[in-house]
Specification:
There is one protein chain. By secondary structure, this protein is mainly beta. It has 1 helix and 52 strands. The strands form 8 sheets. It has a 17-stranded mixed β-sheet that branches. It is globular and about 105 Å long. The two termini are 36 Å apart.
Length: 657
């Protein structure tokens, strides 16, 4: 702990630290420093700065908001006129050395503001895939008086924490369902689960049921659990069914034409609609059937093949003559916007779904109407779940009463999946004596044991309870553990791993990860990435995921504008210290992976050729990925006991000007 290089605007550099010892520090050649206290004390005196040369100028500031540094006048070699306290991380002393003394050029005391603070949050959930998750919020822009945040989520999976979620967020006020107006009393019921926001939500699967309320803000969202028995609701804002522009729109393509109806072997109505795409258990609307008019209405279906399905519980009576459509909506719903709470994957709880952005910051009425339909089965399917309406309004902070963070853009959201690549690094290793047994190890690849995970705010260890926030100028995760390998049994560590994740407001990266791997067993590595950024999400309606965030990417200064081809190719393979994803038209949010020290991360690219930094345009419905390659698949290298591999990577989320 001690002095580290200060990040100047648009400059990124790895920290270099020394410890204040007996009131002294020694310079290491840098011109800009961040000063920490000895033994992490709350306050410390700096009396002497060693290592200066005549004419040298330096800038120093406190590293942590909670650790003040007092520059002592006239005690050692500082001549300042009076003592000066670095009372915040924005307090800066600019000094010049005259060969004997350090003299002040500028002593500035600037208090920290809310725009300088990051937030550490532990998710409220006591069960489900969000239990034990932490998030760090880093402010980066102001939108209609509301602070926008880069959200870095840490997933607890395979017994360790790893960074697995990057999102664009905004603090919102939650208006719980208990404060909303429910239509047709008697059809709404309460469902409880400790993984749902607030511990419960209201639900209905009755078509035409409504729930509504007035909320105040410029950006509106709906919050609720997404489940296997979830259904669909139409959404209006201020009486306009087309105003929820962040939601999909009902179109003619949502309907399939019916070409026939007949009796099934059991006497039920069997509908012929080629290419219907339905699943057994789906609840659908059928309209405009002539002849077999008893087929019109809301039904649960049993699928027979790609063309035919039966309407459960019906009796075929009248001969079919012509016409008819089948869909999750009614024909009169075309043009309306809708929200869906169904997933065909593992259970997801507590999702925030954007409705609209850019409204006048004031009161708005939101109404949701249940369609009574769902894509597949599940007990009591077609449920419309609501735990809260959300609104972003000027001045809200994440830890205000009834406030929380809501997600406007998903950059990387694994949800409960742990089968995708890690973000921080990945290495394929085999022990000596097992030449063909290379395995990816570390983070959500498994084969890792976590000894400790310490969360810190402003350099102080914190132990948050579920649902708790802590604000400061810096938040950290300090992780220690060992790598293992399945070929080694009984389980014996093959490497030690230490990683420090540090988040703070800066013009460069918002979160920096310093990692050291010290090998405990001789072996060999091949595919080896010093850092990765995958863009995409695990969808509600797919077991895999899709890149819904970006169709363009910059590798260094090389633009790749055909990211959406999905051809499985590697693109833009060049030596570069940044990879930046963005969208050409849909939104202005960007995400960047950077390397402050390429030579350290990839050994000057020597072992990574021809991969270098590159982007993989995936063709398997998974996220597109940007990589910093330390070593290529075909370029195996020997690693020896006590050999250390270090890497420093940074991430940033922001809105383009």
């Amino acid at each position: 702990m001690g002095i580290e290089q200060l990040n100047l605007p648009h400059q990124e550099g790895p920290p270099r630290s020394v410890t204040i010892a007996g009131g002294q520090v020694t310079l290491d050649g840098s011109a800009n420093y961040v000063l920490d206290t000895e033994a992490e004390s709350a306050s410390d005196d700096l009396e002497t700065i060693l290592g200066g040369v005549e004419g040298q100028r330096i800038r120093i500031r406190a590293k942590w908001a909670g650790r003040q540094v007092v520059l002592k006048n006239g005690v050692g070699n500082l001549t300042l006129g009076s003592d000066f306290t670095l009372a915040s991380t924005k307090s800066v002393a600019t000094l010049q050395f005259d060969g004997a003394r350090w003299l002040p050029l500028s002593l500035q005391t600037t208090p920290e503001t809310d725009n300088d603070k990051v937030y550490l949050y532990r998710n409220f959930a006591m069960s489900g895939y969000k239990a034990e998750q932490y998030e760090i919020y880093v402010p980066y822009a102001n939108d209609q008086g509301t602070q926008r945040f880069a959200v870095y989520g840490f997933v607890f999976a395979n017994g360790i924490y790893h960074m697995g979620r990057l999102l664009d967020g905004v603090p919102v006020i939650n208006t719980r369902y208990t404060s909303l107006t429910q239509g047709t009393p008697g059809n709404w019921q309460v469902t409880t689960n400790e993984a749902i926001f607030g511990g419960d939500a209201t639900r209905t699967n009755v078509a035409g049921e409504t729930i509504s309320g007035s909320v105040s803000g410029h950006t509106l969202l709906v919050r609720g659990p997404v489940l296997g028995n979830g259904g669909i609701a139409l959404v209006s804002i201020d009486g306009d069914w087309t105003a929820a522009t962040r939601l999909p729109e009902v179109t003619a393509s949502d309907f399939t034409n019916i070409t026939g109806a007949a009796a099934s072997p059991s006497g039920e109505i069997r509908i012929t609609a080629p290419g219907h795409g339905l699943k057994t258990g789906a609840k659908v609307w059928i309209e405009n059937v002539l002849g077999t008019t008893e087929a019109n209405g809301l039904f649960t279906v049993t699928v027979r093949d790609t063309s035919d399905f039966d309407l459960d519980g019906t009796t075929f009576t009248n001969s079919y003559t012509s016409g008819g459509t089948v869909g999750l909506f009614r024909q009169t719903d075309i043009g309306k916007r809708f929200v869906e709470f169904y997933t065909d994957g593992s259970a997801y709880f507590d999702e925030t779904i954007p409705l609209v952005e850019g409204l006048v910051d004031g009161p708005h009425t939101v109404l949701l109407e249940a369609t009574g339909t769902t894509r597949a089965g599940g007990s009591d399917g077609a449920r419309l779940y609501i735990s809260a309406l959300q609104a972003a309004t000027a001045g809200t902070k994440p830890n205000d009463v009834n406030a929380s963070m809501a997600y406007l853009r998903e950059i990387t959201n694994l949800r409960n999946s742990v089968s995708w690549s890690a973000l921080v690094s990945a290495v394929e290793y085999t022990p000596t004596g097992f030449p063909l047994n290379y395995r990816f190890i570390g983070e959500n690849h498994g084969n890792e044991l976590q000894d400790s995970a310490i969360w810190r705010v402003d350099g102080v260890d914190v132990a948050l309870v579920p649902g708790e926030y802590r604000a400061g100028v810096a938040a950290q995760l300090l992780a220690e553990g060992e790598y293992t390998h399945p070929s080694i049994f009984p389980v014996t560590p093959i490497a030690e791993r230490s990683a420090v994740y540090t988040a703070r407001v800066s013009d460069g990266h918002q979160i920096q990860i310093e990692q050291t791997i010290r090998w405990l067993r001789n072996g060999s590595t091949r595919t080896y990435y010093a850092g990765m950024l995958h863009v995409g999400v695990r969808d509600y309606l797919a077991t895999g995921g899709t890149n819904t965030f970006a169709d363009r990417v910059l590798v260094g200064t090389t633009l790749i504008d055909n990211l959406a081809v999905n051809d499985g190719s590697n693109k833009g393979a060049i030596p570069a210290n940044s990879i930046e994803f963005f969208h050409s038209a849909e939104h202005d949010v960007r995400a960047r992976l950077s390397m402050p020290n390429p030579a350290l991360n990839v050994n000057g690219w020597v072992a990574s050729s021809p991969d270098f930094a590159f982007v993989e345009d995936r063709n398997d419905d998974l996220a597109d990925k940007g990589y910093f390659s330390r070593q290529s698949f075909s370029n195996t290298r020997t690693v020896l006991v006590n050999e250390e591999h270090r890497s420093i990577t940074g991430y940033r989320v922001w809105r383009a000007l």
